[in-house]
Amino acid sequence: MGRTTFDFEGETVIVTGGSSGIGREIALAFGRAGATVLNADIHATSKDAGAETPTHEAIEDEGGTAEFVETDVSDPDALAAVVKRAEEFGGVDVMVNNAGVFMRDGMLDVSIDDFEFIHDVNTKGVFCGCQAAGRAMKARGEGGVIINTASISSTHAQKEQVPYDSTKGAIRMITRGAALEFAEHDVRVNAVAPGHIATEFGAGAERKEESVAAGELTKPIPLDRPGYPEDIAPAVLFLASEQAGYVTGETMYVDGGWQIF
Questions:
Q1: b/e for 19-31, b at 16 or more Cβ within 10 A?
Q2: Contacts with 185 (C-beta within 8 Å, 6 or more apart), sequence order
Q3: Is the pTM of this model over 0.90?
């Protein structure tokens, strides 16, 4: 099969939650494609096994340009600040709203505090990230791309995941609404919806692989394996590229076929 390469030379990309997991791989992929990458995360250190080098340093070690900007995505001012920081590199061209948290609890057991916390990070973080980037892109007048990390949970309920599922459903609709409103400013907005991905996020990489192999999921994955961050990053780069120039308001499922039945 063929292989696609992307060129983001001269562009500035913000990745929220870029220190670990899917976000780290997205940031590294943009760095390899020539972009200046701002990792907007609450911690510079990675949760990933074997990833001792912070994301921005790893990009620089490979000859790229990157910076860590401490960012709490539940704080709109923090998101506005990282978008402002991007102006030092010419302004944000691509905003990847990826940061998120996960929790599992029964509908009758989840606390209001936990419900509000996950929505502060996942839902408000994406909404305010879209808002901050959209304002900057509109003001600059050169267009741009916003990509949000949704999930198979955006449209499919999973047991004991109402708080999480509700955030991801909201992200799908934020994506569609923002795409509709930002189109006149030549700003495209799309989402990537990962399936069961083997990262330290959620159940953890090793446990995710074991659960797939043991058939413990609510239904099988047609491609018969979990996904990996390396499966998600190319989808994000495609949506950010000129090849997807006529794509907006869409949610791209990268789930091994999990959601098709």
A1: bbbbbbbbbbbbb
A2: 134, 137, 138, 141, 143
A3: yes
Give residue 168's Cα distance to chain centre.
11
Q: Which of 164, 228, 246, 253 is catalytic?
A: 164
Burial class of residue 79 in the structure, from the number of CB atoms within 10 Å of its CB (0-12 exposed, 13-18 middle, 19+ buried): buried
SS3 236: helix
pLDDT at 79 over 70: yes
Closest CA to 21 of 232, 221, 195, 239: 232
Contact call for residues 168 and 191 (beta carbons, < 8 A):
no
pLDDT number for residue 217: 73
Confidence of residue 214 (pLDDT cuts 50, 70, 90): low
Q: What is the CA radius of gyration of the chain?
A: 17
Q: Is 164 a catalytic residue?
A: yes
Under the banding of pLDDT at 50, 70 and 90, the label for residue 261 is confident
Q: What DSSP assignment string belongs to 118-176?
A: HIIIIIHHHHHHHHHHHHHHHHHTS-EEEEEE--GGGTS--TT-HHHHHHHHHHHHHHH
Does residue 208 or residue 189 have the better pLDDT?
189
